[in-house]
Protein: ATP synthase subunit 9, mitochondrial
Organism: Papaver nudicaule
Amino acid sequence: MTILLEGMKLIGAGAATIALAGAAIGIGNVFNSLIQSVARNPSLAKQLFGYAILGFALTEAIALFALMMAFLILFVF
């Protein structure tokens, strides 16, 4: 019975880490948009960089929550 439980924990933690791939795609989209926007209007580079850092932080927060859930599944339950 305990082997089955361990296997289920590993599968659950692996499923929780799928969100990390989505966060990586999101971060790529944020900086892709920054590069395109600065290429179109270089005079707004400083303002756009601030928005990009905000988008990066929010997207990275989702990744950290997903990683925290994976670790909780592995080591707490």
User: Anything to note?
Assistant: DSSP finds three helices and no strands in the chain. The mean pLDDT is 92. Helices lie at 2-16, 18-40, 45-75.
